[in-house]
Amino acid sequence: MGATATKNQVISYWVKVFVVVYLMFGFGYLQPFGGISEIGMKVLGVFLGLLFGWIFVAIDWVSLLGLFALYFAGYMTINEIFAGSFGNSTTVFIIFLFIFTDIISKSGLTDYLGNWFVSRKMVAGKPWLFTTLYLLGAGITATLTNTIVAMVVFWQIFYAIAKKLGYKPFDRYPTFMVLGITLTSAFGAALLPFKVLPILLMNSYTSLSGETVNYGLYIAFMFTMFILMVIGYTLLGWFVLKLDTDKLKGINPDIVDTSKLVLTKKQKIVSVFLSIFILSLLVPSFFPEIAWLAKINGLGVAGITIFVLLLMMFVKVEGEPLYNFHETASRSIAWGVVFLAGAVVLISGAITNPETGIQPFIVDLLSPILAGHNVYLFTAIFAVIALLLANVANNLAMGIILVPISYPFISDMGISGIPILLLIIFCVNLPVLLPSASVNAAMMFSNEEWVNKKQMYSLLIPTLIYLIIFTIFIGNFLANLMF
Question: Can you give the pTM of this predicted structure?
Answer without folding.
Answer: 0.82
